[in-house]
Amino acid sequence: MLSLILAPSGYGKTYRIISEIKQLIEKKTDKKIYVIVPEQESVRMEAELLDVCGNIINSKVEVLNFSRLSNRVFREFGGMTYSYCDDPKKDLITAVTIEKLKSAAPSFSKSSEDTKYIKLLRSEMDSLRSKGIRPQDIEKVREKLLEEDRGGKALDTKLSDFALIFATYEKAIKENTTDANDDILRLAETLAEFDFFEDSYVYIDSFYDYTYPEYKVIEEIIKSSYKTTITFSLAEGDPDGIFRRTKRALDTIRKQAEKNLIEYDVTYLDENRRTENKALRTLSKALMTGSEITCDTSEGVKLTSCTSQWDECVYVAREIVKLVKNGASFKEIAVTASNIQTYGSMLENVFDSYGISYLPCTEKSILSMPVISLALSALEVINTGFFTTSMKTYLKSPYVNLTEEEAFALENYVTMWNVSKKQWYSKEPWKMHPKGYVEKFTDEDTQELNIVNEAREKVFSKLQVLTKGFSDMSTVHDKARSIIDFFDSINVYDKLLDFSESYVNEGREDLADGEISAWNGLLLALDLLVEGAGDIKVGRDRFIKYLKLVLSDMSFGKIPSSLDEVEIGDVEFVRNKNVKHMFFIGFNEGVFPAVDTTKSVFTESERKWLIENGIEIADTDEDKLKDQSFLYLLSILRPSKSINFVYHTASSESSKTHALPSYYSTLLKETLDVTTENFDVKSAPPVTKTELKKAILSLDFDKDSELYSLLLEENLDFARETMDLYNAVTNCLKPFELKGTENYFGDSFFLTQSRIEKYERCKFSYFVEYMLKLRVRKKAEFSSGEIGSYVHKILETVLRRLTEDGKDITTVEVKDVWEYTANALSDYISNVAPNVEEDSPKYKYLMENISAFVVYLVENIREEFSNSLFRPKFFEESLSNSEWVNTYEVQLKDGGKLRFYGIIDRVDTYIDDDGVEYIRIVDYKTKTGGKSFSLQDVINGMNLQMLIYLFAAIRTPSENKRAAAGIMYMPASKAELEISDFQKEDNLQKKEMDNSLKRRGMFIDDKRIIDAMELGEEKRFVDIKFDKKIGEYTSSSASTLVKMEEMGLIERYINSIFDDVAKDLKKGRIEASPLENGSSKSSNCSWCPYRPICRFEGEERKLIKADNPLEYMKEKLEE
Fold first, then answer.
1. Does residue 844 lie in a domain region?
2. CA-to-CA distance for 547 and 716, rounded, in angstroms?
3. Of the listed ranges 33-37, 44-48, 116-120, 1036-1040, the one predicted with least confidence
4. Are residues 972 and 1049 in the same domain?
5. Where are the beta strands (DSSP E) in 679-815?
6. Quick one: 172 and 188 in the same domain?
7. More exposed terminus of the chain, fewer Cβ within 10 Å: N or C?
8. 1003 pLDDT exceeds 80?
9. Please, which residues have CB within 8 angstroms of residue 1036's CB and are 6 or more apart in sequence?
10. Domain, as residue range, for 138
């Protein structure tokens, strides 16, 4: 006897079954009772039976799914199989099959490189097998295609290749293992032979449809059982075909009954037993019947708009908190989506922060676990020839046999120098400077380099264990063996146990379980590779792809930590029948219903033709859309009290494209007149203590505030926690004094102008860089951004050596300049980059370019001095180690002293007829665009370096009286000129090149001194204009003229700045207080590497702007 119960979800099908079972038990039936449900429903069904029928069900009722039924029958009648072919193994078989048949099945040859396509092809073949379709069926329909002359040669070839791959795939599975799907088919055969269900009651519930083998099993069940009852989630009518899957299942089972002459009855349930809410009942009825009905209330149904996916998660978390505060339990709440994986760990992170207990329905891939990352990164290091990016990933693994200090030092070093495979394999220790292109080694630098070389040896020796068996000509077995040997060499297993134990001690059992699952999964993956392709010789790249392919199918789940948890999952798999409140996130157009949801190796038109000819390939797009409507109905029918559809308006976090709500929202509005509610995370009132604390941070909150007093009265601990948090966040935003800095700096201390400027631009960035000594990771390379520094050094060396060798800069020959340049460049490179690969084309090209550019600059300087009374006196002169210039010293108001150290690029001097030595400080500017001078910078404490050097020089006692001539910036950037321009002789080109090398700066407003710098009133080199009308030189936009008597005013003003800086440093002022960037529209914070630390979001300090900077200085000094 067969009984068919038809009703939508929530109409009492399961309740009807359980009630019948209860009656049978109460009547003390002697017949066996079996309940068959989907695997994820087994525990819930057992719990409901126990709740209604009591403990007697343990002896009377057996709850099974099709897999457990197979196991149960095979144990009794034989046929147990212990080696199953799971998805990872099937994927590997598919990949190997495609590779073997590259020539024979060219339609799919390119797909062997595509992991996603391999999975899709495997899924397609499994789907066909589950429907009872075999390779020979594909060949038959192909013959029909040829007879009808439809589809062209392309489809014919595609079907032929697919049938060949399908047959080879099926043969490989049968030869080595058993497919779990084949177990169900074998179960049907066993049930046909043995009457397992004879004289028993069988209930089949909660399925939407069935596979071909499952239909075969059901047919045997209804033939042998006393009575079989099957439920179908199906409504009467269904004009839009949204129940097509369950209708198809119903029709198939009816035909089975009719074929076997089995009587059946059909029962329709028409009362919604689950949904209490009127709006939900009306909405579901409208969808099932296709009728235009309305409801006078929308209570319990919401449509909510959020800005982003993250905001969606925050909104849902806040609403859950509210529900729980009003008496709901977590287990009565579910969060669903069309594809919950698109929210990644976002939802879980938000729920964790709000203290929400949850049970995800999805499992996590093991690919993200540290032990898997170790294996894959190590393989990538070998495969890419020690490529820096791969090495950095490898060094971050906690399993690598290095201390944190060693790993950090080595990672920084390989990143900075982009260390090549040749350098890794070199037997010589690395000698490049750990700070980049730096000539001198401090004791600290030497120690760091020693650490790097020791770490290099540890890492390289272990990776060599992996390399030995990992050649392109070795077999899969050899490669798998080398991985195990490598793991043994770095004691991975022991470390794994230590990490797992520490996770457990920290209360993170999920991480411990995940890491152990990942380790077991990795070993299983290697076993599968050896079993499926052990004797095959494959290249490194293909082996890694095979390994990733197998690992990508492995995952681990979260063990429930509580009986009261929010359920999270895809709408199709959230099956909790006791849900009262549902949140449907990602309710967006193109997301639900999903665009292009059908995945197949065949096109839409090809699928339609195959389906018309009996090959039930993947569903068409039209059918898939109907299935999406069915899922939409399920989401409405699932909760008993409320549902909230939530969508986002931004298509991505960085995109300005506007995202729209799902078109199903139109039905909501038409049926219930629902209005969209907008959620703004910034203006939403706090619902948790954490949110309240965040809100308080934006208020005037301190120990004397009224708000703090109110909190103190309510909750002492919470008030103190909030105050601590407030102080922690705002300390870097408000004036903050670091304790102990007076001892750190002492009464007198040394600084450089660059550090002064760093402090003036932002105190906090100074603290991080110079006191905490945090270093920004960067590459040391001969790049366009760094080229100026190298030109600077080579230029200085060439000029200095020419002078030291007694050669007159005004008469030196070009061939001598080339020789000096080549020697200087060679010496410099051997010092700063001793391991550089000098035979590389890139290196040779770069050296030729630098040499040509330096020669041009020297020629330009030769021409300058040929027309000048000034002569170079010193190069690279140090303030702290010179007999000619003393350290610049500032007497502080507190009695201490501030001393400056630094190196002057070049000092030019001119001695007039009165024996006065005029000093010009020259600085080579290696950035594109040269350098201009402005007193506006000076009043803001910027660009003081050259002034410090000038004042240091003129204040140093000497035989001759000294006086300031000025400061001069000489452009020395290769970016200003093209190498091809160096040989051009035309006057226009020469004038353009001269303009790009104009010397700018600040000069003494004395015609006699300016003329000594460059003879004649028309200046080719110095950027100063002569006004013939007044007979005087004038300042330009990039150069400034000042009177000799004004130099003292400037010195006193900058000394006052130094006094203020010293006072603030000693007081420990380190707050984030950025100065606005006057030369750019962007903020200084936008490029500051320390912004992630301070997270400053306030308003920058304004630059001082004065119409007359000198007058401003005078006024400030008089205050």
1. no
2. 56
3. 1036-1040
4. yes
5. 749-751
6. no
7. C
8. yes
9. 1000, 1023, 1024, 1025
10. 85-176
Query: Residues 497, 638: one domain?
Result: no
Tens of pLDDT, residues 941-957: 988 999 999 999 999 99
Give me the pLDDT at residue 312, please: 95
Is the link from the previous residue into 135 a cis peptide, with omega within 30 of 0?
Answer: no
How much is the pTM? 0.69
DSSP letter string, 745-759: H-SSEEE-HHHHHHH
Whether 628 and 695 map to the same domain: the answer is no
- Residue 791 covered by a domain: no
With 0-12 / 13-18 / 19 or more C-beta atoms within 10 angstroms meaning exposed / middle / buried, residue 98 is buried
Q: In degrees rounded to 5, what are phi and psi of residue 441?
A: -105, 125
High-pLDDT (> 70) share of the chain, %: 87
Euclidean distance between CA atoms 587 and 661, whole angstroms? 6
Q: What is the pLDDT of residues 1046-1078, one digit of tens each?
A: 999 999 999 999 999 999 888 888 888 888 876
Q: Which of 347-351, 352-356, 786-790 has the lowest mean pLDDT?
A: 786-790
CA atoms of 503 and 483, how far apart (whole Å): 26
- Final residue of a domain: which of 667, 701, 730? 730
pLDDT of residue 223: 95
Q: Are residues 454 and 309 in the same domain?
A: no
142 part of a folded domain: yes
Domain boundary among 119, 144, 176: 176
Helix (H) or strand (E) holding 562: none
In a domain, 50, yes or no: yes
pLDDT (average), residues 293-299: 88
CA distances from 952 to 885, 889, 901, 1041 (A): 6, 8, 10, 20
Q: Domain holding 222: CATH number?
A: 3.40.50.300
**pLDDT tops 70 at residue 176:** no
Number of independent structural domains in the chain: 6
Q: Are residues 574 and 711 in the same domain?
A: no
Tokens (6 digits) for 1025? 């204009």
Same domain for 623 and 504: no
CA distances from 304 to 275, 358, 784, 807, 1000 (A): 21, 22, 51, 81, 61
Q: In what order do the strands lie in the sheet with 888-891?
A: 749-751, 897-900, 888-891
Instruction: Please spell the DSSP secondary structure of 1049-1089, one letter per residue.
Output: HHHHHHHHHHHHHHHHHHHTB----PBP-TTSSS-HHHH-T
Q: How far is CA 580 from CA 277, 566, 583, 641, 956, in A?
A: 10, 11, 10, 5, 86
Angstrom distance (rounded) from CA 509 to CA 494? 18
Q: What percentage of residues in the chain have a pLDDT greater than 90?
A: 36
Q: What would the two tokens of residue 779 be?
A: 């590459």
Angle value at C-alpha 315, between 313 and 320, nearest 5 degrees: 95
Residues 457 and 395 occupy one common structural domain: yes
